[in-house]
Every structure is written in structure tokens, then in C-alpha cells.
Amino acid sequence: MQILERTLPPAEEIVRLYEQQTLAEHPIFQRLKQEPVNLTAIWIFTTNMNVEGGVSKNFVRWLANLAARIDDNYMRSIIAKQLNEELGEGDFSRIHSVMLQRMVDGLEPWRLADYTEELLAPGREFGQRGEKLFFIQDPYEGLGGFIASEVSALQIDQCLGQEIRRQNAIASEKLTWITLHEELEVDHVGEVVELARLVPTSGEKLEAVWRGAQEMRDAIIAFLDGLYRVSFS
């Protein structure tokens, strides 16, 4: 999409665009939905999210850096609210990365006995792209990446939640990450709409937000493509 060759719509249109282009239509979710519950595939998915250098172990750092670099306190307050939730609002046991580790542990019986580093490549590559977007590039590109990530996260969480509800082999206390995320991400999408409305409606900041959103969405789709490849090859 050549977003700089035409007049850009307001940043809140990022949310509408990616809601219309839902990730629920991605082949990995379509295949999971059509076949018997595949907890090994869910283990691969969550392990890639949880890998060192990946999104779960670094998202707090990404948000903290974005909050520090953005030049608007209203925007910063919305980012900080979500950062606080990622950190369990002061309760270590409810830090999202801790809860995800608990879910990965609950999936241990379906863990692949032998696997190579290639299995974890999608998570590591996604982490590298996110690190660059939130730490190196223009903070408004990071802001666009954040907006796109929250819309995408809701779609991913809903798809994973549907799969988890098709089984009863995993203890419910191991699943707090997905059950909480399905609820929180609805609020988070509303908050990033509010955040997007604070972006100027023209100029370099708007252009940067759209670039960052597209880059994040591309990175997420590449992550899902990679997961499909390593799960079903």
C-alpha cells in the first residue's frame, strides 16, 4: 500500500481497516478451527510468543520506551495505563508474561519432544521487528505499531480463546492469560481509538503513524505465516 502517495485518512481509520481485514481469516486460524483441537499447535503458538527476544518478554519494554519517547502527555497516559495492566497492576502473579508462561507450562504434555531452533524462528523474527519499531524508529511509527498491535491482539486472542474452549484437558488456572486477554483487549481497542484521535490529521506525524501501523501488521502476518509453516509442514 503506497500510503504516502495520497491524502491519508485520520489515524483512527487504522482501527477500522484492520478490523475489516480480520486475522481470523488467516490460514492458521481457519485450519485450527476446521480440524480437531490441536494442542501441540497451540503450544507452538504460545511458545513462539513466549520465546526469549519475542513479543511477550519484551512488550513491557516496548510500551515503556514508547511512553518515554512520545511528546504528548495525553497519549502517554493511555500508553501508561496499558503498560500498568501488562505489569499486573502491581501484582506480579498477574503480569501478562508471567501468565503466558503459566499457560505454556499447562501445555507441556503436548510439547514437541524434539525440535530445532527453526520452530522458534517466527517468534524471534517478530521480536526483532518489534524491537526496531519501538526503539529505533520515529516514536510516532511506534505509536502506529502500538495501535495496529492492539487491534490484531484482540483478533488473535479471540481465535485462540475459541480453540481453548473446545477442550477441557488443561486446568483452568493455567489459562488466565487467554481469558483475561480476551476481556482486556476489547477495552484496549477502544483506548487505541482514543489514542489515534489525538494524532494530527495531516503531516509527518500522521504519515509516521500509518507507516508504523502497516509495518506492525505486516510483521504480525509474517509471524502467523511462519507459525503455519512450522506447525503444519
From TrEMBL:
SMART domains: Haem_oxygenase_2
Alphabetized UniProt keyword annotations: Oxidoreductase
Pfam families according to UniProt: Haem_oxygenas_2
Keyword Oxidoreductase: yes
InterPro entries: Haem_Oase-like_multi-hlx, PqqC-like
Name used for this protein in its record: Iron-containing redox enzyme family protein
